[in-house]
Amino acid sequence: MEKTKTFEDLLVWQKAHEFVLLVYRMTENFPRREVYGLTSQFRRAAVSIAANIAEGYKKKDYKNKLNFLNIAHSSLEECRYYIILSKDLGYETDARLIELTNEVGRLLNAYSKAIASNHSIS
């Protein structure tokens, strides 16, 4: 099915990685008191998105692969909440984060559907 050589060739991973980098840059400006709180949680959830896409990439069993994509999507939704929380706390946020959240979500859905349809499940 995949015509890619590494997970780095996947557009969904590329956009997820871009999201991680933006989260890291944005959270550098969060208050110091958040280092072990929101900053850490936000970064870990963001990294989890790209990491689970990468980890699932080489899984042979499509159900296992879909499970990793599901975890990535769950982490994406966790980040969606952290964006809301950051705004509500008055921390500076980057408007591009919402765009990337939506884009990565669409790409994860499309990639998951393509894998599922190739294996006759829905």
Number of strands: 0
First and last CA, distance: 17 Å
Strand proportion: under 5%
Low-confidence stretches are none
Largest sheet: none
- The helix count comes to 4
Which structural class matches the secondary elements?
mainly alpha
C-alpha geometry: elongated
CATH superfamily: 23S rRNA-intervening sequence
The share of residues in helices is over 70%
Query: In the CATH hierarchy, what is the class?
Result: Mainly Alpha
Average predicted local confidence, pLDDT: 94
Elements, N to C (H/E):
HHHH
Write a structural description.
Helix content is about 70%, strand content about 0%. The protein has four helices and no strands. It has a single domain, classed as 23S rRNA-intervening sequence (de novo design (two linked rop proteins)), CATH 1.20.1440. The chain is elongated, with a radius of gyration of 15 Å. The model has no long low-confidence stretch (mean pLDDT about 95). The chain starts with 10 loop residues before the first helix and ends with a helix. The chain has about 120 residues and is mainly alpha-helical. Helix 1 (about 10-25) packs antiparallel against helix 2 and helix 2 packs antiparallel against helix 3.
